[in-house]
Amino acid sequence: MAVAPTPRSIVLAVLLAAACRRAGPLPQPAADFGIEAAPGEDAPAIELAGLDGARVSLQSLRGQVVFVNFWATWCPPCREEMPGMMALGRELAARHPGRFKMLAVSVDDGWDPVRSFFSGPPYQGSADPLLVALDVSDQTTTIAYYCAARAGCPGEYKFPESYIVDRHGKLVAYVVGPRDWSDPRARAYLEQLIE
Fold it and tell me: DSSP label at 159?
């Protein structure tokens, strides 16, 4: 015997279909590049002071793929990977306007070393295209990302470390240590998420 659908069952079916379509399979991380899959849960909140004095909020970037990098000026590998990371950020922001953002969260003790870092070559006073934020004192945001990506807290924290948040606000991947961000595998993986 057939049962006529109720308005409630129709709404539930439409919502379920939309959720299944949106939550389609994520691209496989480029494991040979060192991109590791994260659990895919909501990314920890980011509400930090920005280099320009404004607040930096992950929530305000919802709808974009966000590359979050934790670094420090006193960290040689962080300093070495920054130019390539910024070049990748410029390229993706230009190719996908309004759909990709790169956020560099410094764990330095204050703004002076960060400003000094970006005032020298090759930056000449510009951190563009990065949003730059500072996670001072107890580094709550940094620790939240380290723990969320692994579904548990590691015994130690190393820098740099990068995290990928998809346009739905889910933490989908992370990269431990420095990388050559000019490698086409990095761009290909990020573009799969953007598109």
Answer: S
CA 47: distance to chain centroid? Answer: 14
C-alpha 83, offset from chain centre: 17
Whole-number pLDDT of residue 18? 36
Is 24 in a helix, a strand, or coil? coil
pTM metric for this prediction:
0.84
131-134 and 47-50 beta bridge pairing: antiparallel
> What is the arrangement of strands in the sheet containing 65-71, beginning at the earlier edge strand?
35-37, 171-176, 161-165, 65-71, 100-106, 131-134, 47-50, 55-57
pLDDT the model gives residue 24: 47
Task: Please give the Cα distance from 169 to 8 (Å, whole number).
Answer: 28
User: In CATH, which of 3.40.30.10, 3.40.50.300, 2.60.40.1930, 3.40.50.1980 is domain 35-194?
Assistant: 3.40.30.10
